[in-house]
Fold this sequence. Notes:
The chain is an alpha/beta fold.
Amino acid sequence: MAYYPVFVELKDRPCLVIGGGREAQRKVEGLLAAGGRVTVISPKLTRDLQRRLAAGEIDCVQREYQEGDLEGCEVCIVATDDGAVNAQVAAEGKRRRVWVNAVDDPPNCDFILPSVIRRGSITLAASTGGGSPALARRLREELEAYLTEEMPALADLLAEVRGELRSRAIVPDPEVWQRAIDEELRVLLAQRKYRQAKARLLRSLGAGELVMELAGAEEGAG
């Protein structure tokens, strides 16, 4: 099966997790990290889920799944290891047009969850289409090694400079951007020399005049 990879904005959207074990706990963590409003349906909860409930981070209905529980939610993840429950939830999801993921049960999934690495504003995801979770984990580990310490700072710097250039109607060619993201720029960020890194980036993008302008603005603010 071919999947279309997509990142979904879940901030403040109602999300449902059916199950209260360790796998459900991991799914809750991912949904909360994306800003979702999470409700758990399960008669029992792990200690971590109990803590989150007590802290007001999640809501909980402490019973088994029942028909109608998907009303009002936008995304549902089933983590019960019960094929019959997976099928019931998947069927309700189709009727209500709610996306459903049943853990390790692709036939009852509208979407699958990749292995994910988050570093600041950077999110990397690896998937084998549900065929090999072990390989997906290995890919995630290799991507973690690639995602070095300066990468989140680099992402923030590029976003900041891109916004400043666009506000001045300066749009460098994509290839110019690629050449500007060089090893020296990354070394400066690794050394936490943010101002020097920004000045180098602006010059590499053909916007060297902004270096003096921004420096003057900083002196004026000081």
